[in-house]
Each structure stands twice: as C-alpha cells, then as structure tokens.
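Show me a record, fold above all:
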Amino acid sequence: MARHPGIFPTFFLSGFECSTFLWKDGRRRDLVEETRHRRHALEDYRLLRDLGIGVAREGIPWPLVDRNGDGNCDFHLIDPFIAACRDTRVAPVWDLCHYGYPERCDPFSPAFSEQFALYCRAAAHYVSRHLPGPYYFTPINEITFFAFCGGEWGWVAPYRRSRDEREVLRAALCRASIAGVKAIREVLPDARMIHVDPLVQVVPPRDRPDLADEAAHETFVDTFLAWDILCGKACPEFGGAPEILDIVGANHYSFGQMEYRGQGPHKALPPGHEGVEPLCLLLHRVWERYRRPIVIGETSGLGTGRPEWLRDVMEESMAAVNLGIDLHGICLFPAVDMPDWHNGEWLHNGIADLVEAGGDLKRVPYQPYVDELRRWQRELNRVTSLDEDPGSDPVELQEVIDAARRLRPRPDDNWH
C-alpha cells in the first residue's frame, strides 16, 4: 500500500489539443481533425502507453456533440477515444469545454449555466457507461485565458473587446463550471475535477514604472480570480467551494511571463529578463493560496528546446516539492504536435511531431524529448511503460518527495 498515494496512476500525464472555438474569421475550428487525432486515436494512445504515461487530457467537443445546446447529445465523435482508452488502459481527463460552445448558446445569458450542466450530466452518463473509473474531468479549460481571448481580444466567440466584457464572460464561465461540477457529481459522486488556468507573471515595461499597479493586478488578482470563485473565496453566491476547485491545474509556458500592455495581449519576456520569476515560486503562490492538490496542467518547450524545457520544469517542480507543495503530476502537453492558431504552422511542441506523408500526418516521436522524459522517470523511480492494469496502484508520491530531497535542485529565474 502506498504511504503517500497520488491521485493518478502515473506522475507524468499528457493530452491532446482539442479546441473547438469559432475563430475570429467566423469559422468553426476542430483541432482534433486538424491534427488527425480522431483517426489516429489508437496509435496516439499507444504512444503514451509505451512511454509510461497513464493519463491523458482528452476533449469532448461540446459544440459538435450538443449542437442545439439542449443536452440532447450525440457522443459518437468520442467513441474512437473511448476505444483507445480501453485498449491501452490510459485514463482520460475529459475536457468538456475547450474554448468552444454551441452556436445557440449565449454565455451572457442566464440560461448558459443550465445548458452547460445538462451537457455535463449527459457526458458523465455516457463515459461511465463505456469506461470504468476512476473518472477525471476539466469542466471549462482555462477560464481566465478564455475570458481574455473571447471577452477582450476578440479572437474567438463571443468576440467581445473590452475589459468589462472580459470580466462578465469570466464570471459566466465560472458559474457554468460550478454548475457543471455539480451535474457531473450527480452521476459520478467520486469524480475528480481539474481546473486548469495559466501561471502568470506580469511586469511593467522598463520605461513605464507607472504601470506597476496594473501589472501587479494581473499577476496577483487576475491570475487567481477564476480559481478564487471556484473555491468560494470570491463571489460565494456562485456556489463555489474547496471541493468544487478540487485539483488545481497550473499551466506553465514561457509566454506566461509578460511585459504589461494596455491594449491586446502582453509581450512575452525574453530569457534573462529581470522580471522572470522561477516556476518554483509561481507554484508556491498557488499552493499558499489554496492548499489543494496541484498538477502542472500543461507544459512544453518548442522545437529543439523541448528537452531543456522539460529539465527546467522538472528541476523547478522538485524544488517546489521540497517547499512542501502537494504536486501530483506533470502534463507534457500536447502528446502530438499542434498548429499555431494564427498562422497554421506546426509548433513542434509535442512529444511527437506531425509530418505530412501521403495526405496524412505521420507521428514521429522527438527522441531527445523522449530521452529526457526517460531520465526523469528513472530519477523518480517511475514506470517507463504501462502494465496490464496501471490503475490498480496510484503513484507513490513519497518516492517523488524522496527524489526531490536527494536532488535538492535550486530554483532559478531563467529558462532555456
């Protein structure tokens, strides 16, 4: 029996890009189709199984399965993922709203929360009929980022362009997420919820110290407000509570550390900038605020920098473990490459790259990234491939804690 059992069967997780937003050109995007993940589902899941990754973030495309927004859903689109999970024994974290919602739904309408709850209840019924537990869900992915790109920047529906509308959209998404959690738990009382949002550090431009308060507000208020609402710290009338927040999924990318801009997205800080803070510190801020289990919900480097990025993330994460945070896993996201939303170019941020071949997309693992993953699996005494029943034993987190104490990494303020 594990002395310090984790939540998941493996410490390393992964996942698949599954956005279904209405893009700023008015076109519905389906990133699962663009990456051919639906037709390569079994191959993609076998890649994870062979890498010793037993959990994958996977999307249910709300606007494609619930076209009328009335909870009358057709879930056949996720059948290939369910079959792949059964074959490989990889456990899915079902992402129920990845920036997309049915066109007949209006997130500014009072009906939106109930529409989302009806869909969540139907999704819980469907997956529980086709897969054994345990069950994991992310009701609404990156509420904070969704509110920015749909409420202030106009990138995706509902195409709003003001800070006030961003705030209203975030509140609506939080209300819906809380309603979704409650609906899922009517069907699956023991289901675990992972609420994912980015780790953010914002600093004023060097020549604009007068913007320090605005930058600090984004760092210490905006970063946390959605999580605060979900756990009941803010807007308690929405019904949030610690058990609603459940597991905090903190996403970490280099562009999460930014220089403040009054209009539009902020500017990413370059390596070596004095405003960059260690990941260890960012994780510790989350832990001190909520004292809930934490996973790094997404992280990846780009191109040839992927192995060094993973090394930096792991060293920072082990330093955070030594500070006492309850870290349950790290999600290497995505498992296979994805296109840049804006220009369609492959980002080369996956465990496997996608190479066009004969009208299809061939999966080609990036071996230096795989090698670095293997090195850390050995350091943490983790499995390197899944056995017949990976869910029979949770991660022994004490081994992760022991590795962190042995390695004693020092957090730094840079990335490669």
In short: The first strand starts at residue 12 and ends at 15. The chain has 13 helices and 13 strands. The chain has a mean pLDDT of 96. The chain has one domain: 12-407.
